[in-house]
Design brief:
Shape: globular
Radius of gyration: 21 Å
Number of helices: 0
Structural class: mainly beta
Order of helices and strands: EEEEEEEEEEEEEEEEEEEEEEEEEEEE
Low-confidence stretches: 303-312
Length: 368
C-alpha cells in the first residue's frame, strides 16, 4: 500500500445549507443589519444576508446549545452540550476578526442560555439541569467574575436569561416557578438575587423581554399566557438593585375574536416561545403552535376577575388585542427584527421565514 507523500492539509468548510431550529433564540440578526448568526452543529455560522457568503467559527467539540450576540456586534458567545460528567465550554468570539478571544469550562454537561450585558462588559451563562449555576464572565479581562446557584429551595430549574437595557450589571433569570432579578457587585465579585413576588401563581417561563427603561419585563409561559412584571428599579440608573421586591403586575392572554364560555380564555397553543418588545409597548409573540401575533395591551383601569365554573378566579386576563397574525406551522424558537419592515422567524422544523411587518405575509427562505 503506497504511502502518502507530503503533508495532508485540513479541508475547510465553504458553505453549509441548513439551520438548527431546535435552539431557543438560536437565530440572531447582527446589529450591522447585514449578517445573521446561528449555530449549526459544532460551528457558529455567520452569513451575509444579501450575498449568502458564509463564515464559520470552529472550536466547539459537540453540538452548540446556546448563542448570543453583543449589543455593539463586536462579540459572539456560544456554549455547547457535552457528555455526562464532562465540562461544557463557553467561547467568546470576535465577530470582525473571526477569532476566539476567551473560553471557560465552569458549567457541567450543558449550557442552557447565554446573555451579554448591554454595555458588552459581561456575558452571563446559565448551566443546564446537571449544573444549575449562573456564571458571570468579564469579557474584557477574559476572566471569571462570579457565580452562584440559579434557583433556590424548592423552585425548579432556570432555563432563560434577559439583560437589562440601561443597567449593565443587572439581569433576570427565569424558568420553572423561577423568576429572579440579579445584580452584579463588581468590587465584591459577587451577585445578589431578588425573587419576583408572583403570589400563588405557578408558571414555567420560556422567554423574557424588558422595556428600554428597565421598568417592566414581559415573560412568555408554557401555559400560553404572558406575565407582566414590574421590576421596581430606582429612577436613577446608577442604583442597581430594586428599591423594593419586584412584583407581578398581571397575567395576560389574547382577546378572543369569538365568544367563549364563561371561565375560558384564549391561550397560545403549546406556550409562548418567543417575544419581541417594541418601543411603543407592542409585543411580537411567537407560539409553540406556529402562531406569530402582533399584540398591544388593552389599557384598563380595573381588571375584572371572572370566576370560573369551579368557583376560583382565573389568573389569566384577556387584555392583549391582536393587531396582526400569521402562522408558520411549527414552534417559533426565534423571532428577530431584520432591518425596518421584516421579521425573521426561526422554527423547530429548522426553517427560517421572512414576515412582512406591514402585511404579515410569510415567505419561506431557509429549509432543510
Amino acid at each position: 500500500m503506497a504511502e502518502l507523500e507530503g503533508e495532508v492539509g485540513d479541508l475547510e468548510v465553504n458553505a453549509i445549507i441548513g439551520f438548527d431550529g431546535a435552539i431557543v433564540g438560536g437565530l440572531k440578526v447582527h446589529p450591522d443589519g447585514e449578517h445573521i448568526v446561528f449555530p449549526i452543529g459544532n460551528k457558529v455560522a455567520i452569513q451575509h444576508w444579501s450575498t449568502k457568503r458564509q463564515y464559520f467559527l470552529s472550536g466547539h467539540t459537540n453540538v452548540i446549545s446556546a448563542i448570543d450576540v453583543s449589543s455593539s456586534g463586536k462579540y459572539i458567545a456560544s456554549g455547547q452540550i457535552n457528555h455526562i460528567g464532562f465540562k461544557a465550554p463557553v467561547i467568546i468570539w470576535d465577530f470582525y476578526k473571526r477569532v476566539m478571544l476567551s473560553r471557560h469550562e465552569i458549567h457541567k454537561v450543558r449550557i442552557e442560555a447565554l446573555k451579554f450585558s448591554t454595555d458588552d462588559r459581561y456575558v452571563t451563562s446559565l448551566g443546564g439541569r446537571d449544573c444549575g449555576n449562573i456564571v458571570v464572565w468579564n469579557v474584557e479581562a477574559g476572566a471569571l467574575l462570579s457565580g452562584t446557584e440559579a434557583s433556590r429551595g424548592s423552585k425548579g430549574e432556570a432555563t432563560c436569561l434577559c439583560a437589562c437595557n440601561i443597567r449593565g450589571e443587572c439581569f433576570i433569570s427565569g424558568g420553572d416557578g423561577n423568576l429572579i432579578v440579579w445584580g452584579i457587585d463588581v468590587v465584591a465579585r459577587s451577585i445578589a438575587g431578588f425573587d419576583v413576588n408572583m403570589s400563588k401563581l405557578k408558571r414555567v417561563i420560556y422567554c423574557m423581554e424588558m422595556n428600554e427603561r428597565d421598568e417592566v419585563c414581559y415573560c412568555g409561559t408554557s401555559t400560553g399566557d404572558i406575565l407582566k412584571v414590574r421590576l421596581n428599579f430606582h429612577p436613577n440608573s446608577e442604583i442597581l438593585l430594586p428599591v423594593k421586591p419586584p412584583i407581578m403586575q398581571g397575567c395576560f392572554t389574547k382577546m378572543s375574536s369569538k365568544p367563549l364560555p364563561k371561565g375560558v380564555v384564549d391561550l397560545y397553543g403549546q406556550g409562548v416561545r418567543s417575544l419581541v418588545l417594541f418601543k411603543n409597548g407592542r409585543l411580537l409573540v411567537g407560539a409553540g403552535d406556529g402562531t406569530v401575533d402582533l399584540v398591544e395591551e388593552k389599557k384598563s383601569s380595573k381588571v375584572v376577575h371572572e370566576p370560573a365554573t369551579g368557583g376560583f378566579k382565573l389568573p389569566s386576563h384577556p387584555l392583549l388585542r391582536v393587531l396582526k397574525s400569521t402562522n408558520v406551522k411549527s414552534s417559533v424558537t426565534s423571532l428577530q427584527m431584520f432591518r425596518e419592515n421584516t421579521i425573521l422567524a426561526g422554527t423547530s422544523n429548522c426553517e427560517i421565514f421572512m414576515i412582512d411587518f406591514s402585511t404579515f405575509e410569510t415567505d419561506l427562505v431557509v429549509t432543510c
